[in-house]
Every structure is written in C-alpha cells, then in structure tokens.
Design a protein that fits this description.
The chain is of the alpha+beta class. It has 8 helices and 21 strands.
C-alpha cells in the first residue's frame, strides 16, 4: 500500500496508532506516535481512515449535515466583544492553522488507480468486472492483510453498490463510481476477518457518453472458497494488475452485451422495428470438441436437460431417473474437462431447477478443481437454473 505524509495508520503487530510524518524510502516511513517518531516498514502498517465515496457525495449533496464547516476548537481563548479593547489589549498570538482535510472528491481519487491495458497477446484478459484480493506483503502472501478491490476493466464508467452476505443479513459496505479501466480500493482486510468478505453481492450500472446501445444494470453474487485464500498458487499476475492477485470474475462484459441485456436506439433497430440480435461468434475449428456448444470464441454453453442429451427418452430403454442423472453428469464432466484443455475463459451449464440433485452434484465436483470459480448465471437469461464456471 502506498502511504503519504499525514496518513493515519495502525500497527499490525502491536496496539496503538500514529501518523505518517516522514517518507524514508519506498519500504520505510516515519510514524509519529505519543510525540515520538519511529521508523516502520510499510508492510507493518494499515491505514485506518476510509475516505468518503463519490456516490456518498451525490447522495448527501445539499444537506446541512454534510460537508459542514468545522466548528472552532473549544479551547481557543476568545475575548468577548463587549470587553474587547484593542487599544489596551495585547494582540493574541495567532492560533496555528491546521492543514485543510481533503475534499470528498480528492479522497475518492486516492482510492482509485488505473489498470494496465492488454492489447492482443497470447492470453488477453477478458473485459469485465472483477473482485481482486491483493496481499500487502507480496513476498509472504499468505500472511498479513489483503487489499480488497473492485476492478472495472471496461470502457465504461461503473457505478456500483457492494454488500457482503452474512448468515442472516446483507451488510452494505461501499458504493462509488469507478472510471473506465480502473480499480478502486474498498478496504484493507485483516487475515482473520477474511471470512466476512468471501461472499456477497455486487450491483452495477454502466455509464457512457454516447452509444447506439445502452447496457442495463447487473446484479451478481460472488463466493470465494476460503481454502483458495490459503493457497499461494491461486495468486497470479493478471494482465491489468502489477501485483500477485487472487482474481474473482464477477461479470463478463462481452457476454453481458451479447445476451442482449441492452436498450437499443432507433438506428440500432431493423426496418421491421425489432431489435437486431447480436452476432454470435461461433468457433468453426473442427478440432474443437466443444464446437457444438460454443457461443463465443472463448465461451461455451451446455444445456444438460435430458431432452437435449437424448434423441428420445426411450434412448435409455428401461432407464430410471438415476440413469438420466448419470448421463447428465457424464456430459458435464466431459465438457468441463474439454473446456479446461481448450483453455476457454468460461463455460455455462444449464441444469434447470428440478429437485436440485444435479446442481448439488455439479457443485460438489467443481470444488475438486483448482483455479476454477463458479457462480449462478444471469437470471435474466437462464432463470435460476444455470451455473457460470470461470477457468484459470
């Protein structure tokens, strides 16, 4: 984490807190506490002040309780006006003025930082929205706090609302705006508190100056398995980050747009007045065993309904429901392994609702794979009956 003079910090290995009063070098700062300045490693410190967000500024704009002038210090000696005799009284010494605190907009800028862009390359990063967990200590990544970021790797401004999920309630954490191709620091999370951040919901709106299509809002659940946080091999260098990161995909921008989740202007409609359907980028490589399921260059969609897998329900003569389940799981495992071998970015499995047995078996199998993240697919398109599996 980057510190600046004036930052309020607390110590990781002992009680108490202080203020940054000197930048010694890139790894060491001077911290003044109880009147003494001591040198400290930046890896042993955590910021304790959380700046207000742009969204908060918008919500409270114009209200008297927000951004009100600071009250005068209580201990300032002032002479009552009725007894003030400047010709007889000595001038009072000027009280030292404190540096003005940053405005909400300036504080918000401190949380936001640009991302690196990838242009082509062997493994280009898919545009979208991500959650990123970055260990503060990049050398010993499995100890110490992690910085929790929301990543907007899209050409649009992202307005988001973020909450974690508890046993009985959601807990609102943050709301703000993130410029295109930027990330925002939500919180620096202590290792022992990570369990409170592993499950939640991210809602968002995309803003753009002008476009023939206008993307609709999204609402996505996320879940991070606790055992993933404790494995060093799960921390990688994403294309757009410069530090090792545990990256959790939340929204694939191309798929969100291709699903037709957008309003279209008159120019984007055909002569019959019907919205034009987005082109499907079908892979035509005959060597790809997933060709029949490809909906984009790196995305497959597999429908596991029995009627889609069998020519007729008589194909398995005298079969029982358990035989259908076995066939569905066979197709699921085969397609998943093929997607991993083909290095697809994502595969979607449509399992339907039913009695929940198929979904439970799928999730049980998915937990046995390394470097996979899965979540419920878009309810707008699939209802409650599909899983999105992110690979790599």
């Amino acid at each position: 984490m980057k510190f600046e003079i004036g930052d309020k910090v607390k110590f990781m290995d002992q009680e108490g807190q202080g203020e940054i009063t000197k930048i010694i070098n890139a790894n060491t700062v001077g911290v003044t506490t109880d009147g003494f300045e001591i040198p400290c490693s930046v890896t042993d410190l955590i910021k304790v002040e959380k700046p207000a967000s742009t969204a908060e500024r918008l919500f409270y704009e114009g209200k008297g309780s927000y951004d009100a002038p600071e009250k005068a210090p209580k201990n300032v000696n002032r002479i009552p006006a009725a007894h003030h005799r400047p010709e007889e009284e000595e001038d009072l010494p000027e009280m030292p003025t404190q540096a003005s605190s940053p405005t909400a907009e300036e504080a918000e800028d401190l949380r936001i930082s640009p991302l690196r862009r990838s242009f082509g390359g062997k493994n280009p990063q898919s545009e979208g929205v991500y959650i990123a967990l970055v260990p503060l200590d990049q050398q010993f990544m499995l100890r110490g706090p992690l910085e929790f970021y929301i990543v907007n790797y899209t050409p649009h401004t992202l307005l988001y609302n973020f909450a974690t999920r508890g046993a009985e309630s959601f807990y609102g954490v943050d709301f703000a705006s993130v410029p295109p191709y930027s990330k925002i620091l939500v919180e620096s999370v202590e290792r022992e508190d990570l369990g409170l951040w592993t499950e939640g919901i991210l809602q968002g709106l995309f803003f753009q100056d002008e476009s023939p299509t206008w993307l609709l809002p999204f609402s996505k659940d996320y879940k991070i398995r606790v055992n993933h946080l404790g494995r060093q091999e799960n921390y990688v260098f994403p294309v757009f980050m410069q530090q090792k990161t545990l990256l959790v995909p939340v929204l694939d921008a191309a798929l969100h747009k291709a699903e037709g989740i957008a309003l279209q202007s008159g120019k984007a409609r055909n002569e019959e007045g019907k919205a034009e359907q987005p082109a499907r980028n079908i892979v035509t490589d005959s060597k790809n065993p997933l060709q029949a399921y490809m909906i984009q260059r790196n995305v497959a969609e597999v429908d596991l309904h029995v009627e889609k897998l069998l020519a007729t329900r008589l194909e398995l003569k005298n079969a029982e429901e358990k035989d259908y389940l076995a066939r569905q799981l066979q197709v699921f495992e085969t397609c998943l392994n093929q997607a991993i071998n083909q290095r697809l970015s994502k595969i979607i499995f449509i399992h339907g609702v039913g009695n929940g047995i198929l979904k439970a078996e799928m999730e049980k199998n998915l937990k046995q794979y390394e470097n996979l993240h899965f979540m419920e697919a878009s309810r707008v398109k699939y209802g409650a009956g599909a899983l999105e599996v992110y690979i790599g």
